[in-house]
Write a sequence for this structure.
């Protein structure tokens, strides 16, 4: 497939602080050195990694540093990263709102950018007038807008207000109208920044659907920045993870999203509580000693695959006689609980005498989809209230099964992939 | 399309500007429509303000200071001077502010930045046209009451002369606009420059009044002077029309435009970071 966008060693430097006489001094020195002495800009050599939280020593920071990747035509690329990672700067460079400090971006085709919906809306003008204004700013001609006017109004769902000044609109309606105009823009490359954050659920769904049509049906390239991992995953095929102005990882969107969500925290699929003080799962009466998730019959270092049986191993000690059971909540990468499970009287007697116990819970093979999961642990007394609880106690990653070449390599939707029975017979 | 840190400085992408012509038209329309929203008198303000200034000028410069107008009825003399100068000053002002006032929209979307000064020049034309209409109403009145007025054939050059003034303002304004993005001091300086500039331009007095030769030459070196004089000569029959000095004005305009374009191109890529 053809390349749509190429970033070649793109960097962007910003100067922090206020404009002052110091700025003027720097500008004069820069001018002298680059234009009169024809040497390199001295301020490009300094500059620090853009770490928002730490105090820096230099006034110059690199918002983006040496960004180098390609986007294929028809790809929907999700750009993710923490606040200040450089996502919006990247989109700004691409939409030519500001220029790179060094490096080159090559783009093949017209770029339409949606850094904010409703750019150029004027409160005194009616919705209809603003559609023309906004469309023109985004690079459409009057004719193009005229041809799509009915569709745009229909998509926005603001028909009733279309001849009312925009200052009377609710904020949601303004967004709807703005997005509707942009949705009918037909650039080869569409750049979108978090515009879906406003607007109600119905409209977000509509907007995502429209963006899907644009990329899949019409083969156009979309770059999309959002903090909403669900919309990133449902829309994008490729993910780019930015960290402190650099590209940390590029790849299949699910892998990148889970990498981002894991963040800096270490991956634990085993925890030994005996050397941890102050765990939420320890009390004078009940003491959790070990929890681990592993391949059945394997060690904690083995890779767990979708085709393996997976077991949760728990060991605890009890000081007093208690009626208790352990409940596990299994959560996916988004932190949403998929299901809850406990043994209790179904599997073992809840009446426990003081002593040390081990408990093993088994997930059958081909149950989890590949991905990373976390366990919340609840110690439930008398089957009615939890006496101890801790969240994200252990996390574990289930690897994809090996694929035959030529079969579907992507991730099926959903967190579980149970293999239920299908029966078929030929009728005639 | 290639996005680089720097492009050639002396370029203007005509094709791109042409592609955005609808936006230009819409911006102009928008400015007209929203100019006097929520005012009681509305577009009447376009007429009231110049008439008020003329009354004050006639009283102060004609009545008190006794500055001659070379036989031309003072109201006509001032009206023309103020309108032409006003157009120049407003073009200069709006061009030099174009980055700062449009920062909001420039920060969201790309389009050829140069369109904004062009829009400003066009929008200012409306106020100028209305003032000119008032001027002609007065003109007909004075001509009918037997005042000594001569229209010269050079009047056909009037649109060209106004175009030169507009371009001069755009060129000069572009130089300022690219510097005001970072250093707002220049905005203050420019305000002062415009308000003082009017005194070295024959707006409220005729150039012929300046008899000191050195001063006369210095005033002619002001590139607005030859154009102003030519306008007055062709419409009122007062003043001097010099092809040589007009050529000088054109040359200055041309240089200002080139320099302005270089400055503008240098800044337009990254001004969002400093504005």
């Amino acid at each position: 497939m053809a390349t749509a966008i190429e970033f070649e060693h793109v960097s962007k430097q910003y100067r922090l602080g206020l404009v002052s006489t110091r700025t003027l001094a720097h500008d004069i020195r820069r001018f002298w050195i680059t234009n009169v002495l024809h040497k390199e800009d001295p301020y490009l050599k300094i500059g620090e990694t853009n770490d928002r939280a730490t105090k820096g020593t230099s006034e110059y920071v690199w918002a983006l540093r040496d960004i180098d990747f390609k986007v294929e035509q028809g790809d929907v690329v999700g750009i993710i990263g923490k606040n200040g990672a450089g996502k919006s700067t990247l989109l700004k460079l691409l939409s030519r709102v500001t220029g790179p400090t060094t490096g080159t971006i090559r783009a093949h085709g017209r770029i339409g950018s949606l850094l904010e919906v409703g750019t150029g809306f004027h409160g005194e003008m009616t919705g209809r007038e603003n559609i023309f204004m906004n469309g023109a700013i985004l690079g459409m001609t009057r004719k193009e807008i005229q041809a799509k006017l009915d569709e745009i109004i229909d998509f926005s769902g603001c028909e009733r207000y279309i001849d009312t000044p925009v200052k009377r609109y609710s904020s949601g309606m303004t967004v709807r109208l703005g997005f509707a105009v942009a949705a009918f823009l037909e650039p080869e490359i569409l750049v979108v920044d978090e515009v879906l954050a406003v607007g109600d659920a119905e409209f977000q769904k509509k907007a995502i659907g429209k963006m899907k049509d644009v990329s899949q049906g019409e083969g156009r390239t979309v770059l999309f920045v959002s903090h909403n991992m669900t919309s990133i995953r449902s829309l994008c095929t490729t993910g780019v993870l930015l960290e402190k102005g650099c590209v940390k990882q590029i790849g299949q969107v699910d892998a990148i999203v889970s990498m981002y969500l894991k963040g800096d925290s270490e991956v634990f699929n085993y925890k030994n509580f005996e050397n941890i003080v102050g765990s939420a799962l320890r009390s004078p009466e009940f003491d959790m000693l070990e929890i681990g998730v592993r391949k059945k019959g394997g060690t904690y270092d083995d890779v767990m695959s979708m085709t393996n049986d997976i077991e949760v191993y728990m060991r605890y000690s009890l000081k007093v006689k208690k009626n208790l059971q352990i409940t596990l909540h299994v959560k996916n990468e988004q932190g949403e609980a998929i299901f809850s499970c406990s043994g209790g009287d179904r599997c073992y007697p809840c009446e426990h005498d003081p002593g040390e116990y081990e408990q093993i819970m088994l997930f059958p093979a081909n149950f989890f989809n590949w991905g990373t999961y976390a366990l919340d642990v609840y110690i439930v007394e008398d089957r009615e209230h939890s006496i101890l609880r801790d969240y994200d106690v252990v996390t574990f990653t289930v690897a994809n099964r090996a694929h035959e070449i030529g079969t579907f390599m992507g991730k099926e939707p959903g967190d579980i992939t149970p293999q239920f029975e299908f029966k078929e017979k030929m009728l005639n | 399309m290639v996005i680089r840190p720097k492009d050639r400085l002396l370029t203007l992408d005509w094709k791109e500007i042409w592609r955005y012509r609808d936006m230009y038209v819409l911006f102009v329309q928008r400015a007209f429509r929203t100019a006097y929203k929520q005012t009681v008198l509305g577009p009447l303000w376009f007429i009231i303000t110049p008439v008020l200034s003329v009354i004050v000028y006639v009283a102060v410069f004609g009545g008190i200071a006794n500055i001659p107008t070379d036989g031309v009825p003072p109201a006509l003399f001032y009206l023309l001077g103020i309108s032409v100068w006003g157009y120049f000053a407003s073009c200069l002002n709006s061009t030099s502010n174009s980055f700062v006032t449009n920062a909001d929209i420039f920060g969201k979307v790309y389009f050829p930045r140069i369109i904004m000064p062009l829009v400003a020049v066009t929008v200012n034309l409306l106020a100028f046209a209305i003032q000119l209409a008032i001027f002609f109403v007065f003109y007909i009145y004075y001509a009918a009451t037997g005042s000594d007025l001569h229209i010269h054939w050079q009047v056909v050059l009037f649109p060209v002369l106004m175009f030169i003034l507009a371009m001069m303002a755009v060129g000069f304004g572009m130089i300022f606009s690219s510097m005001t993005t970072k250093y707002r001091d220049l905005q203050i300086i420019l305000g002062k420059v415009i308000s003082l500039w009017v005194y070295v331009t024959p707006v409220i007095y005729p150039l012929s009044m300046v008899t000191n030769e050195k001063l006369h030459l210095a005033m002619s070196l002001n590139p607005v002077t030859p154009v102003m004089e030519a306008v007055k000569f062709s419409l009122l029959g007062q003043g001097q029309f010099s092809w040589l000095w007009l050529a000088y004005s054109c040359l200055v305009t041309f240089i200002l435009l080139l320099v302005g374009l270089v400055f503008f191109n240098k800044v337009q890529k990254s001004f969002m970071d400093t504005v």
User: Anything to note?
Assistant: Chain A has a mean pLDDT of 82. Residues 290 and 381 of chain A are 20 Å apart (CA to CA).
